[in-house]
Amino acid sequence: MKNSTLIVLTTAIVGAILGTGSAYAADLPVKAAVVVAPAASWAGFYIGANAGAGSAEGTYTLAPGGCFLTGVCGGGAALNPLRTFTEDNLNTFFVGGAQAGYNWQAGNFVYGLEGDINYNGWNDNTAFLYALAAPLVGTFTTAVNTRLDWFGTVRGRIGVAASPTILIFGTGGLAYGQVKSSTLGVFSAAGDTYAGTASSTRAGWTVGGGMEWMFLPNWSLKWEYLYIDLGKLNYTDGCIAACGAFATPQAYTTSVQFREQVARVGLNYHFNAPAAVVAKY
Questions:
Q1: Around Cβ 253, how many Cβ atoms within 10 Å?
Q2: Quick one: pLDDT at residue 18?
Q3: Which pLDDT value is given to residue 90?
Q4: So what's the pLDDT on residue 71?
Q5: Is there a cis peptide before residue 135, judged by omega within 30 degrees of 0?
Q6: ∠ CA 188-193-194 to the nearest 5 degrees?
Q7: Residues 6+ apart with CB under 8 A from 205
Q8: Which of 18, 110, 182, 231 fits as disulfide partner to 197, beta carbons 3.0 to 4.6 Å?
Q9: Where are the domains of the chain?
């Protein structure tokens, strides 16, 4: 009887102790830290570099000027369509530079401003030999050099965060660049020779789009396409040999259209990307 009572009493005491221990253990603070990856943020200032390829989409036209337009030299203005020459200026080249910008973000909507300055490898030498149509005789040989040494843009960007780390955007705004051109043309029959050159910093426009991937909290990689139009550069090719004795000398005018397509990749560093959030339990 005493043994049974002791067993029951012992069991009750052990149960009470275990129950109290469990309750006390549940109340104890557990010092554990879990690092939670932050959601990507596109807002704030960033800088970066880019590299890619450019494709010239320009054209050039050589058109009669000077006394050709008055109809008093070389057969008159009626023949001027036969003295007008137009060619496409197509080539590809390296482009590369640096960019900086600032984004604002509201939910999945991202908008901002970006500027860049870039080396541009457009340096094209084009030469043609044209057989002249009657009543003109002989040939016309022309050599045209066109260059766009550098360009920059100042653009707005509007995009949507398709996921926390993927931004799809459109962009457009001002484009500007240093354009150069020179022309040398010779008519074989008369030997009259024309030459001209020009250089100018021109402003135009650009439009494009792309995608950007935030692959680390502070770093993103972008793929971007831009169409750039810097308009026309016009200059006079004066007669420098066998020019004839005209009060108004004959001349030519060269018009070069500077249009370009750019496909490039870029790497950006974002200064305000959030640090990892540490939650304690």
A1: 20
A2: 42
A3: 85
A4: 82
A5: yes
A6: 135
A7: 172, 173, 174, 175, 228, 229
A8: 182
A9: 1-30, 41-280
Question: What's the CA gap between 144 and 239, in Å, rounded?
Answer: 16
* Among the listed residues 209, 212, 210, the one whose alpha carbon sits nearest the alpha carbon of residue 270: 212
Tell me the whole-structure pTM to 2 decimals: 0.81
DSSP reduced 3-state for 70: coil
Closest by CA position to 135, among listed 194, 72, 80, 61: 80
Residue matched to tokens 């879990």: 34
- Compute the distance between CA of residue 112 and CA of residue 275 in angstroms, rounded to an integer: 22
Q: Give burial (CB, 10 Å; 0-12/13-18/19+) of 239.
A: buried
Instruction: Residue 227: name the closest of 273, 264, 274 by CA.
Output: 264
Spatial contact of 267 and 76, defined as CB atoms under 8 Å apart: no
The whole-angstrom separation of Cα 241 and Cα 246 is: 13
Report the mean per-residue pLDDT for the chain.
85
Nearest to 268 by CA among 226, 227, 228, 216: 216
Residue 99 in contact with residue 60, Cβ under 8 Å? Answer: no
Instruction: Characterise 242 by phi-psi region: left (phi > 0), alpha (psi -120 to 50), beta (else).
Output: left
Between 17 and 92, name the one with better pLDDT.
Answer: 92
* Other beta carbons within 10 Å of 36: 9
- Separation of alpha carbons 258 and 178, rounded Å: 10
**CA angle 147–149–150, rounded 5-degree value:** 140
Tell me the two tokens of residue 45.
């200032």
Structure tokens, 221: 């990689």
